[in-house]
Predict the 3D structure of the following.
Amino acid sequence: MPETTDKHIGARIREFRAIRDYSLAELGRRAHVSTSQLSRVETGEQPASPSVLTSVARALGVTLSVLHGQPYIHMLQKDRLDRLLAPISSALDAWDIPPEDDLPLRPLDDIATDTAAVAKQRAQGEFGAVAEALPELITDTALAVQAHTLAGRGRERAHNLQAEVARTTAIVAYRLGYMDLARLALARMAVAAPESGDPRQVAVERYERAVITHAEASRPDRGVALMRQALRDLDDDGDPATTAVRGTLLLRASALSAVQKDHTAAGDWLGQATELADAGAAADAAT
């Protein structure tokens, strides 16, 4: 089994190296790994240490989880990758720039329907279809935010949709192994979420940041700090949606604490999550 795993990881490194058009020597230079060692890792003759894998992943611009086996490598042919991701990056870059042409403003209800559909596809792992739809949705939500400038429900809803689309973008980019694009999308979400009028969106942005940014940077302590901040700022208002978000934050804090080998804290976070679930079950039984 270990040999199979080593060969699998080595094959994925070789595939990503080909996508990046890197020679063995070039990847070795970028990752600070000798060419001979890298060759043995790619063929599965030598297992890669965690430090080598981290360096290689950083040099390739992908996440460790992608090298370990997330099933999206077959989408990543270079021409298809460029076609899918370049328009997304361009749309995010033009996020707050008024369009030169008079583009039609779509009703928020229509944008909400498409946003929900794309989120469902994302949950089902249909990343190709999601990536195709994202540039238009990013533009639609940007136009909606620019149009709804007066305080009120319309403005908040436009920002809420913008935050949701940015979240989907960040998750897809992360799952495909493209951290720069994921971080850019998260930065956009961090701007939109506080304007949405929904404190849950702010908490979700912090959750995604803990998962995407700090987990991959091997900084679970920062992730725990984000979960603590999110829980502090998200009051338990009795809304089932809020309870669900708080429960997710508690579970993530527990998992990140376990990564730090702080088992006492992990147990405390898990205990709070259990209490929250028990209280919800009791409330449901009473109604």
About this structure: Residues 50 and 64 are 9 Å apart (CA to CA).
